[in-house]
Amino acid sequence: IHVSGTVLGRIYPISEGSQIPEWYDPSVDNLAAAVSCKTQRTFNDAGDVHIAAIDCGMKFNQIRCFVNRGAKVTVLPFDSDLSQCTENFDALFISNGPGDPAQCSNVTTQISRWMEQGKPLFGICLGHQLVARAIGLQTYKMKYGNRGHNQPCIHLKTSRCFMTSQNHGYAVDASSLPDEWYELFRNANDQSNEGLAHCTRPWMSVQFHPEHMAGPKDLEILFDIFLEHVSVQLDFILSD
After folding, report:
1. What is the reported pLDDT for 16?
2. Residues in contact with 112: Cβ distance below 8 Å, sequence separation at least 6, in sequence order
3. CA 185 centroid distance within chain
4. Which of 68, 90, 94, 150 is at a distance of 20 to 30 A from 83, taking alpha carbons?
5. Is 207 exposed, middle or buried (0-12, 13-18, 19+ CB in 10 A)?
C-alpha cells in the first residue's frame, strides 16, 4: 500500500468448500446516488434566505450551520432538476458525498446551469470537486487520500494556515484553472487543491469540512461569508 497507494481488498473465510468472493470496485458505482435522500425536505421554513442543497451524502451539521444562521434550507435528491423546482432559490449548496466525482455528471450539469444565473454557489468536499468539473477542471484519485481532523490548509491570499477536517480520496487538478477563477486554499502537506473561488461572482467551494464539530472549527466562518453574500448578492472574495 505504501508503494501503490490505496488498493482493493476483500475478506473471506478460509475453510473447506468456501468460495472466494468476486472483486468489487466501489469507484465504478454512483455512490452519491445510493446515499442521497429520495424526497425533498425543507428546514427552517421561516428563514430569511432560501438555499437549495443538493444531497450527495450530506452531513446534517451542514444543514444545522445554515439554519443556525437564519437560512431556510431545502434539501434536494441527488438527481433533482433545478429547472423543474417551483421554489425561487437564492443560492445553491452542493454537499459532500462518497465516490468518484466523474460519476456525478448530472449534478455537474445542474451547477453549470445555475452559474448561468449568476446566483451564489457553495460546495463542500465532493461538492467542491463537482464545482471544479463544472468549470472544466479534472479530478483524480489520490494515492492515499487526506483524512483526519488535523489537515493544514493555506489560505493563499493571506498565507495563513488553518487546521481542517477532511475525508476524501479524490482531488481537484487546478493546473488549468480558468482566468476568472483562483485557488482559495492549498494543502500544506501535499500541495493538493483545497478550495476555489471566482474573481467576481459569488461562487466558492472547499475540499475540507468547515462544518465539522468533532475537531477544529476555524473555518466554520465560511458559512457566514457565504450567507452574507447571498443576502447582498455582492462579489464573493474571501478577504483577510
Report:
1. 72
2. 134
3. 14
4. 68
5. buried
pTM for the whole structure: 0.91
The residue with cell 489520490 is: 142
Three-state secondary structure string covering the chain: CCCCCCCCCCCCCCCCCCCCCCCCCHHHCCHHHHHCCCCCEEECCCCCEEEEEECCCCCHHHHHHHHCCCEEEEEECCCCCHHHCCCCCCEEEECCCCCCHHHCHHHHHHHHHHHCCCCCEEEECHHHHHHHHHCCCEEEEEEEEEEEEEEEEEECCCCEEEEEEEEEEEEEECCCCCCCEEEEEEECCCCCEEEEEECCCCEEEECCCCCCCCCCCCCCHHHHHHHHHHHHCCCCCCCC
Pairing of strands 160-173, 41-43: unpaired
Euclidean distance between CA atoms 178 and 193, whole angstroms: 14
Residue-level length of the chain: 240
Residues forming the active site: 125, 209, 211
